[in-house]
Amino acid sequence: ISRETVEFGPINATIHSVNECAGIDELEALAEIYYRTAKRFGELLMSHHQYPTELHTVCDVVRWAMSEMERFELGHGTADYGEEATFLVLRTLKLPFDRLEAFWNAHLTQDELWEVLKNIESRVHNKVPAPYLVHEAWLTEHPFYVDERVLIPRSYIAELLEEGLEPWVEPENVHTVLDMCTGSGCLAILAQMAFPEAQVTGA
Length: 203
Prior knowledge:
By secondary structure, this protein is mainly alpha-helical. It has eight helices and four strands, in the order ααααααββαβαβ. A two-stranded antiparallel sheet has the order 1-2. A two-stranded parallel ribbon has the order 3-4. α3 packs across α5 (110-125). The protein is extended, with a radius of gyration of 23 Å.
């Protein structure tokens, strides 16, 4: 990025020694310096893309995200840019879906706007799936934590489990469940919820 390098570190008498050590308070201060530096660096990178300065509300950023998604081909089976943009923006802000109208015209703080734009940038230009960005994927009404270590859970079987697999089985007669190729384990978890008395195995 540049020919100049800056190194951050605590100043202490044992630096670069075998018994190097530092106080906890120094490490906390150093962590804050790292955070502020990384955040500022990210802001500088994002400013290179010349984001619109008119983005103020939840509605503004959702609308802008939809426009950006329309301009670039997205992966991960995106069928509805409106739903994709709304999910990404709301869950970045930790806002609930069922109260969208209450927050639709809410103004974002500068830090919130930065987080949202960063995730839109990663989704649109780096093709990072939205669940990885917000660390959340939904199966029916159940949210699950996800990150890059696991395949994003997507299965119609989740909807069948909501009904206890009826009419094909009688839930009270299910004693064991085997979830083959369990992946994230989400279906095994939903199976345990559907059949609380059964022994569920994910393999």
